[in-house]
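JOB MANIFEST
job_type = single_chain_structure
chain_count = 1
residues = 465
[input]
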Amino acid sequence: MPDSTTTPANPAALPAVIRTLLEANGIAFSLHPSSAVNAAQRLHAVLVQEHSKELLVVFPRSHILDLAKLNSATQTQWQAMPIAAVAQLLSRYGLDTLPALPKLFNQASLCDPKIFMQPMAYLDSGVPGLLLGIDPAALERLFKVSQRVTCAEPITSQQPNDSAVSSDAAGIEHAVIRLTSRRIHRRLEETLEIPLLSSTAKKVLRLRADPLAGVDELAAIVETDPPLAAQVISWAASPYYAAPGKIRSVEDAIVRVLGFDLVINLALGLSLGKNLSIPQDQPLHCTPYWQQAIYTAALIEGLARCMPVEKKPESGLAYLGGLLHNFGFALLAHVFPPHFSLVCRSLEVNLHLSHSTIEYYLLGITREQMGAWLMQCWNVPEELVCALRFQDNPNYQGNYASYANLSCLAQSLLAQHGIGCVHDSSIPDSLYQRLGLSADIAQQALQRVLDAEQALKELARQFNP
């Protein structure tokens, strides 16, 4: 791996405010492109606050900031500074990234002692992709007045969502035993008191399995559930679908606008969505739950439409995978309520890590594992189980890969525009190739969704009256 011998970058690229600070304090440094630096030697900085107090916390980038340890050591309930406030602060200094330089912002600072253990430390320079290289002696001088607290832990290189689905139930059971006082019953779902499926959801699932089912049967099921019928009609009447004339009935919505495949999966998604309460608490940087779900589903629908026929999945089921892609997050709140707030706050202060890494560190389980397990309990189609379970793996090529791959691509595309919660929005060419899509076509599908922002937000408001 590259280390301190990497080729220095252009010195002129360093912001003047950073250069002045380092030179004024006699700190020797070198400049390096981030792509050429060993990730294990990088430092990471985060700004936290509690009422009027602010603190710059610095720790190795290969670690997770353990918020419980930080709070316990400092006797303070720290939370991440809102992204907008951090951006405003950086803007005042003409910076784009947050440097781990305690003296720059004239703020209190704290560092984990592990930052001094590398032969060379690399920290953000304020310019994306450009790092400062600083030796241990200079680093000691930089952090001379910083409080030193062990508050970060190394993260495992194991990717929990790459494990076999068959091991998820055992992992969830282990987490429940470790984190709650619940007694494990004969069946795990009894322990967790998972709600039973509604009669509407059961009827829709039976209808999906019937190859002879038609519009009349589907309309009859939807109409027996007045709130669901109203939502289907509202969906069809939305400006997003631009239906000509007034939508007069559920059958009208199916035949003229949405189609059988979309409505049967939409009805299933809406029915399943009623079985768990969406948590009021969520990370500050994340898009509201249903808004994120609807954007993702809409983009998946558009991407699937552009795929070659031989690769194209069942479009309605793919749409449902998007609508329910974050269902495991609601299940985490349901199963681990005492720990859920810590999960949200930890996601806010560890933006350099994926949510699955953070959840696995804190709980021993991830939202993808929880969501897929619940779908198995409810006997939904296996395509949906795989879509939820492997959606964060751009290299997944197992069963029903197109469903998981579409969800992964849609979330990454949306994250590039600040929608959702994806940590790494880079998209490998291999993901496009497996779906039979080009980056240009995917961007066109994305733009159609972004152009329909107001219509999609209106759909989301139906879930948050």
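[summary]
The chain is about 50% helix and 10% strand.
Strands lie at 30-33, 43-50, 53-60, 63-65, 79-80, 108-111, 121-124, 130-134, 147-148, 152-154.
exit_status = 0
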